[in-house]
């Protein structure tokens, strides 16, 4: 789709507003809107936004970052391919945006541009990435000043599907109208906890889809006088919510050779190729810094606990749901297409563009340096003794956001991939958020995260 197509569709749909959206360093989806009558020019010239917004935190404070103050701005330039008409609000459409400097060049602090750089890096090697996310979230309502689950359904129960059938149907219909293909939906472990899986797409579109799912779930829930929360641990006594990333790397092929899933080897255990093993080796090498990006809030680390199926250790295994990386079973009849890697320590407080880009940077470091991930783990890594884990090279993931940020600052592969401005601004934002919650109770922390995600 091009700009002219967007303008035409907006006019035919009689839209009044079109939102120019982005996901910031705090993992918050923000933006501005143009009146539809001005869209024909705004879509190319963009909307101005202060440089300070990439130093803005998830707790509505401004982190100290050089060059991100009251002087200067960037432009929100929308990607026409992301245009959708929003089914849950009247007369409104939206697009995801890149952050462009006033000289017309991509801004180095733009998360979406970072993912584009990682895509280009793969393309230079004749590769591309596809991804999909498992979206876990709760449906809740506010009662007497407190958030409570919308029902008391059990894990995978049909009762839960019945309880929220109208909400679920409205959500799926809204997503389908916006061009998303639904794979699976089921109730999860917590009361009124849902899980939604979207069909895989090229990695940039997959990251856009993460934002689209969040926005749509929030909007649909409100129409039923409910709240949808994607916070990592919204209820301290219930299961946490993840955003598990499923990723595959493909060879682009040529006229004589079709595209090829580079993770696939029909003769290897679990159909996992050496390329795939090296990719895992890279992710595990960088996992302690990577989680500062994929599990990006103080609330995240209340979810990453041993024996909670969310992963707490830097290990991998075949269908091992306690490992940081799970190699899922392939599907019969489409083994080569379905092999992928699942990153479990990932949630919706992380910016999806940063998360997927950093995951690619970590994994490809493993491929380029042929990093051996070691043996796959056949049991829950938490069942080993400390000595057994040390012998196997299995380390505990960071237990706080500050600890993860310490690891990220030391990880030159990840910080070099991000670039100085994006790395510095991201770390500053997250340090500010971590400091804000140091004197807060767990309950205060959960409430603060509940609404914003």
Task: Give a structural overview.
This protein has 14 helices and 17 strands. It is of the alpha+beta class. The protein has two domains: 3-106, Glutamine synthetase, N-terminal domain (Ubiquitin-like (UB roll)); 118-452, 2-Layer Sandwich (Creatine Kinase, Chain A, domain 2), CATH 3.30.590. The strands form two sheets. Strands 7, 8, 9, 10, 11, 12, 13, 14, 15, 16 and 17 form an eleven-stranded mixed beta sheet that branches. Strands 1, 2, 3, 4, 5 and 6 form a six-stranded mixed beta sheet that branches. α3 packs parallel to α9 (352-368) and α9 crosses α12. It is globular. It starts with a helix and ends with a helix.
Name the features.
453 residues, alpha+beta, Ubiquitin-like (UB roll), Creatine Kinase, Chain A, domain 2, 2 domains, 11-stranded mixed β-sheet, 14 helices, 17 strands
């Amino acid at each position: 789709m091009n700009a002219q197509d967007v303008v035409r569709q907006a006019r035919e749909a009689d839209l009044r507003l079109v939102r120019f959206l982005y996901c910031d360093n705090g993992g918050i989806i923000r933006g501005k809107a143009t009146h539809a009558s001005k869209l024909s020019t705004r879509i190319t010239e963009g909307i101005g936004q202060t440089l300070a917004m990439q130093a803005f935190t998830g707790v509505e404070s401004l982190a100290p970052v050089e060059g991100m103050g009251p002087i200067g701005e960037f432009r929100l330039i929308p990607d026409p391919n992301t245009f959708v008409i929003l089914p849950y609000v009247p007369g409104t459409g939206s697009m995801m945006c890149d952050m462009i400097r006033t000289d017309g060049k991509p801004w180095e602090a733009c998360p979406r541009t970072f993912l584009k750089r990682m895509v280009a890096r793969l393309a230079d090697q004749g590769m591309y990435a596809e991804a999909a996310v498992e979206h876990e979230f709760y449906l809740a309502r506010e009662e007497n000043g407190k958030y409570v689950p919308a029902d008391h359904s059990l894990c995978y129960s049909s009762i839960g599907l019945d309880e929220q059938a109208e909400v679920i149907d409205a959500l799926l219909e809204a997503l389908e109208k916006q061009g998303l293909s639904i794979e699976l939906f089921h109730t999860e472990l917590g009361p009124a906890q849902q899980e939604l899986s979207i069909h895989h797409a090229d990695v940039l579109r997959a990251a856009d889809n993460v934002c689209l799912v969040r926005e749509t779930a929030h909007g649909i829930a409100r129409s039923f006088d409910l709240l949808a929360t994607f916070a990592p641990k919204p209820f301290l006594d219930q299961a946490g919510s993840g955003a598990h990333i499923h990723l595959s790397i493909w060879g682009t092929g040529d006229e004589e050779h079709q595209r090829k899933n580079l993770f696939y080897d029909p003769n290897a255990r679990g159909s996992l190729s050496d390329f795939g093993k090296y990719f895992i080796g890279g992710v595990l090498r960088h996992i302690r810094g990577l989680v500062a990006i994929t599990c990006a809030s103080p609330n995240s680390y209340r979810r990453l606990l041993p024996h909670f199926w969310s992963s707490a250790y830097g290990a991998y295994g075949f269908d091992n749901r306690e490992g940081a990386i799970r190699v899922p079973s392939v599907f019969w009849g489409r083994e080569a297409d379905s092999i992928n890697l699942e990153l479990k320590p990932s949630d919706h407080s992380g910016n999806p563009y940063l998360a997927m880009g950093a995951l690619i940077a970590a994994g490809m470091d493993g491929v380029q340096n042929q990093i051996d991930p070691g043996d796959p783990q056949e049991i829950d890594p938490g069942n080993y003794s400390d000595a057994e884990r040390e012998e196997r090279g299995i380390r505990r993931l960071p237990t706080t956001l500050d600890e993860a940020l310490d690891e990220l600052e030391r990880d030159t592969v990840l910080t070099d991939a991000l670039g100085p401005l994006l790395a510095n601004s991201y770390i500053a934002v997250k340090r500010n958020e971590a400091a804000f919650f140091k004197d807060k109770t767990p309950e205060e922390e959960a409430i603060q995260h509940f609404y914003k995600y």
